[in-house]
Every structure is written in C-alpha cells, then in structure tokens.
Amino acid sequence: MPTHSLSLLSQALALGAIFLATLLIPKILQWRTRMMKLNAIPTVGSSGFFTSYFSARAFKTDAREIILEGYNKYPGQAFKVPLPDRWEVIVSGKEMIEDIKKASPLDLSFIEAITETMQTDHTLGKPARVDTYQVDVVRTPLTRNLGIKFEDLRDEIKTAFADEIPAKETEWMKVPMLYTVMKIVSRTSNRYFVGLPLCRDPDYIRLNIEFTIDAFNGAKTLQRYPNILKPIVRQFLTDVPTCLKRATKHLEPLIRERLRKEEEYGSSDWPDRPNDLISWLLDEAQGERRKDIIYNIVSRVLLINFAAIHTTSMTFTNAIFCLAANPHLAQPLREEIENIVAEFGWTKAAMGKMWKLDSFLKETQRLTGIGGLTMTRLALRDFTFSNGTVVPAGTIVSVASYGMHHDNVLYEEPDTLNAFRFSELRGKEGESLKHQMVGIDSSFVLFGGGRHMCPGRFFAVNELKALIGEVLITYDIKFENNGGFPAPNWSGASASPNSLAQVMFRKRIPSSA
Question: How far apart are CA 180 and CA 504, in angstroms?
C-alpha cells in the first residue's frame, strides 16, 4: 500500500478514535460518578460487578425476605438491591418517607417511574401520561358521585354474586376464588364506569381482566428493547394492540353517540345524559383534548379499569381468604353490617359507619398486602434526603412497605391478624380519621403518600366494603378441611393471592338486611 494511503488511513483511524473518546469518556465518567454515589448506600446481597447478577436473580424469588432483611438491618435508612438491569434504592422511616412525599416531581417523579417500569407510552397510552386529566376525573366526579350512584353499585354486586356464585342453602359449593373475584369486580366497577348492558358483556369482562395481565407482560417484553424498536415490538410482540381494538369495538359506539348528542343539543348538558366515566372524561376533554377523541377516551377507560380491577380484586380475595381461615370473625362483622344497614340502608353513608369492617380490610392488607414496595419514584436529578443520603439521577427509589407493616415497633404482634386493631385505635380521642383505611397514616402506606396518594382509594374502599358485606350477609364460607390462609405468589416485589385456591360457599337463610 502506498505511503500516502497509509497516512490517510492512520489519520482516519486517529480521528475515529478521538470521536469515540469524546462520546464514551463523558459517559464512563458519568457512570463512575453515579456508581460512587450508589456505592455509599449499603447493599443487601452482593454488589460485585458479576456476583450482583446472582443477587438480582434471588430478588425475583425471595424479594420479601430481602426487603425484610434490609429493613431490619438498616432501620430508618436506605439500602439498595440489584435488579437485572439496574439498582433500586429502598428506604424506610418516617423522615425519609416525608422527604419523598414533599419532593418536587422535578426531583423524584412518580410519573417517570411508572413510565419506566410499566412502559406506559406503549402499554397504557402516551396521551394519558402527557395529559393526566383522567386523574382529575377519578379524584373529583368519580369520587363525588359515589353517594348518588351507590344503588347501582349495590345492584350489580347482588346480581354478579348471584350469577357467579349460585350457592344453595343445602350444600357447599367450591369456588376458584381469584378469577371469580376478578369477574365480579369487573362487573361492579364497570356498572359504575360505563353502565348497563356493557358491564355484563362477557367479552368486555374478559378484556378488562386480560388487559391487566397483557399490560404487565407487555411491559416486561418492551423493557428488553431499545426505544427506537419499541413501537414495532408493541405492535408485533405484545397483546396490547389487540386489547385496544377490542375496547374500541365496545366503547366507540357509546362515545360517538355522546358526541352526536352534544352536537344535536349544542351542549354537553342534554336530557338523560348518562352520569358515568365516559361523560366525565368528555367533560374534561375540551379544546385541543378533543383531537383523536376515541383513542383518548378508550385508552383512559382501559387505564382506569387497569388500576381498579387489579388492586381491588387482590385485596378482596385476600379478605375472603382471611374470613375463610378465621370463621370466628364472621359474626361480629355480620352484626355490625346488619345493624347499620337496618338504620341507613345500603348507602355510602352506611359504609362510612362500618368501623369494624374498615378495620378488618385494612388489617388484611397490612398483613398480606399486594407487594413489598410502594411510593416508587424515579430520581430525575441527584436527590439528597434530610439524613444526608444521596440518590443519583436515574435511580428508582421505593419505600419498604412490607417491612413497615410488619414492624413490631409500629404494630403490636405484627405477624398476627388482629381484625379490629384499627377500629379500637379509632375509638381513642382524636384518632377516628387517622386509622380508617383511606386515612393518611405514616405507618400504613398501602395507598402511597404525598401528591400521588391513590386518588381512587375512596371508590375502592367503599366498593370493597359493599363486596365483603354481600359475602357476609349472603353466604357462609370456609376452606375445605378447615385449611389455613393460602400462601401468596411472590414475583419480585409484587405479591398476588394464590390463583389456585378455592373457597367453599353455602347460601345463608336470608336476613332482614
């Protein structure tokens, strides 16, 4: 090769090396700086470059034990655990929780954390992340209409139970609990959201149950691919597009009819307009929000169902398991329900007076829960807690809720079910609000905290009380052979009720309630 050509090649290689160095060196330095900050936080498991992968695999199956180990070893402090693709920082203690509650979303972002973990732009819809008006709908009209629409909720609960659990007074009926509960909760929630007859449509019920699973599975798949490929992966390697098509088939006619009525009357206040989720979302979707209105409303109805059915079904199933494993609890709860319903009827006001039932539901969630972590945030820039702990930008931060709920400093005999723990606490002067299930309680963080505390918790708790009330008034329940509470299924930091567990139901002789 001529000397001149060699010289040009050498220059090209040198320029290429310089170009790569200018790209890589800042990233390497940034990574080293970030790791130095993370290394200052103690690790539960291994922190070695290669050995941490073994600890990440262990977190998949033993997350509950790992979270408890960190919580007990570093009380009121932060610790970190390795995950397959990142480190997660876990905190505890009132001071650090208050720091998260008060943090600006520019520092610790709930939205960005969910975007990363759930891949929301591709699973739950980018418009709902960019413009979160569905949260305002849940917080205001959905919650405020509970009293007005409670009769509909109650009617669907009675009908759904009669259809799904047609038990007789003369014999016991085995019921596969979790899936049956999901069908009942889907019907009940959607009676409130979209009304009859759609809430009872078999395909629509299956869709809302399956979408939760498909969205979680889709997120796991999408996390394995770079951003540039995610739209293609979503379309061909997940079931999310199919779910959206099915939802559109069911909801588009309802939405278009509402829009036609608005145009006909020149107002959104037309005669006999349904008072439901679709109407409330359309009320918020004015101006620029009316663009691509069918997709925007359909995706938000799916999103609200995703949040409502998933958590309520697991909470309700855990409560039924606790009742079946502790039959002595049925009578005091039943007496409270019957006495209050006799005076106030099946109303939202009556639900608020059921302190024992509220306590029972809160205690079952404290004891079993639906996971080990809550209040998850993504640090958008370096964040310093008031105790001096620094979490570098790009790090996921969560609260060790399972550790808190099983802390013997916060709770007497924390590993024992004390059904009326919270109703007894509410009986003390000045404590009646703090210890109710929807209340703000620094030692109970099921619904999160701060500005992102679950806006749907009032609807969820009232629905749960009405559901459990129907079980107690209508049925006797037990486990076959007097079995105990079935162990939940843990996958990473998430926990779900045993999907194979069955509960025995027998219809009670109807009472005056």
Answer: 13
Q: Residue 236 and residue 9: Cα distance in Å, rounded?
A: 43
SS (H, E, C) 10-31: HHHHHHHHHHHHHHHHHHHHHH
pTM (2 d.p.): 0.91
What's the full length of the chain, in residues?
A: 513
Residue with tokens 């779910």: 243
Neighbours of 376 (CB within 10 A): 21
Which positions ≥6 away from 188 have C-beta within 8 Å? 153, 156, 157, 160, 463, 466, 467
User: What does the pLDDT read at residue 30?
Assistant: 53
Paired tokens of 292:
């691509």
In angstroms, the CA 202 to CA 160 distance is: 12
Give tens-digit pLDDT for 185-222: 999 999 999 999 999 999 999 999 999 889 999 999 99
Show the tokens assigned to 276. Answer: 């439901």
Distance CA 497, CA 177 (A): 9
Burial class (CB in 10 A: 0-12, 13-18, 19+), 419: buried
Task: Count how many Cα atoms sit within 13 Å of the Cα of residue 226 in the half-sphere of its side chain.
Answer: 1
pLDDT in tens, 116-157: 989 999 999 999 999 999 999 999 999 999 999 999 999 999
